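Anyone? Bumping this.
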Amino acid sequence: MAIAKPYADIPGTIIFDADMARIGFHINQFALSLMKAENRERFKADERSYLDEWAMTEDQKQAVLDRDYNKMMSLGGNVYFLAKIFSTDGLSFQVAAASMTGMSQQEYAQMMLDGGRSPDGNRYLHEQKGKI
Amino acid sequence: MAKITAGVTTSHVPAIGAALDNGKSNEEYWKPVFAGYDFSKKWIAEQKPDVVILVYNDHASAFSLDLVPTFALGCGEKYKPADEGWGPRPVPDVFCHQELASHIAQSVITDDFDLTIVNTMDVDHGLTVPLSLMFGQPEAWPCKVIPLAVNVVLFPPPSGQRCYDLGKALRKAVESFDEDLNVQIWGTGGMSHQLQGPRAGLINQEFDNNFLDKFIDDAESLAKIPHLDYVREAGSEGIELVMWLIMRGALNEKVIEKHRFYHVPASNTAVGHLILENK
C-alpha cells in the first residue's frame, strides 16, 4: 500500500521525502560538492563541464544552468543542498527565495518586512485557484 | 552531580550570523534582532554554564545524502565551523565535553533512543548562530558544547512526541553523571518560515505566539502536533520547532520564564527566543 502523503495538497511547497531524495540524489550531491572552494572555482570556470561529471539528468543540469530553483526542487533538489549553488553565486537565502516566488527581490523583502506571507489562503491547493 | 539548570530556545537564521560576521549588527534592519538578546548575554554571563547540550539541525553541511541520521550525538573532541558555500564562519571551534557526551550516549541508548554517534563532523550555522547570539564574538566559546543534530531536512523528521520524550531521557542521563556540572540545554530552529517554492516567505505569527505560550506550561499538547500541521501552518521549515521540544522535555514540568522575544523578520524567518529556568 502506498504511504499517504497528505502534504501533497499544500500549495507552492515540495516536501523533500524519501522519494524525492531518491530522484534528487545526484543533483543534491553535486550541490554539496560546492562546499569546497576548489570545486566552486572549477564550477564557475565551466559550469557545463562540471555538471557533466555528475550522473544527473539533462533536465536537472539545465535547471541548474538556468538557476531555476523551483524546477530543481521539482526534480528532487532540496533547498538546503541547493543553497550551496546560490551561495557560490554570492546570493543570500532571501534573494534565492524571492526568485522562487515570482516576486522581485524588492517586493519580496517588503513582504517580509510587512510580516511575511499570510497563511490565510495558502494552506490548501483548493484555496489557490488562479493564484500561485 | 551534573544538573540541567536552564534551557534556551532560539532561531538560528544564517543571515543573523552573516550580519554579525560582516559588522552589520548595528544596521537598522538588524538592531531589533540583536536587541532581543541583550538580556540573554547578561543572563548567561551570570549563569556560566559548564556545558551546553545544543540541539540543532544540520543543513546539508555535515550530512550529505550519503548518511542521514535522525538523532546524531557529537562525542568527538572538537568541531570546526562548516564551509556552507561562502567559506566557514569566522567563529571559534566548538569543544565537546566528551565524558558527559559518552555518558549520555550510553544512558539514552539504553533507554531505547537509538542515537547515532558522531565523532567527526563540521558544524554549520544551525549550531554556531545560537552560540553567537548568546555569547557574542569571543575568542573562544566560554563553555563546552555537546552537539545533538536532529534530521529535519529529509521528511519525515522525528515526531514532536519522540523529541519531547528524548528530552526526558537526556535529563535522566545528565542527572546520573557524577561530576558537578552546570548544564544547559538549547533547542534551536524555527519559528515559522518557508524557504522554498512559490509559498516561500510564509510567516504565521498566531501559530508562533500560541507555540510560545504553550511551551511554558502545556508542552505536552505541543508534542502532539502532527508534522502536517507544522508544514501547513508554520511553513515547510517551521517543522524545525520539533527540536524545541527536546529542550522542553529535558527541563522540569514547572519552569520560570526569564525572557521571551519574538521578531519578524530576519531574512525569511520569524525569530523566537525563550530562556527558561527550572523551578
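Late reply, but here is one note on the structure posted above: Chain A touches chain B through 57 residues (CB under 8 Å).
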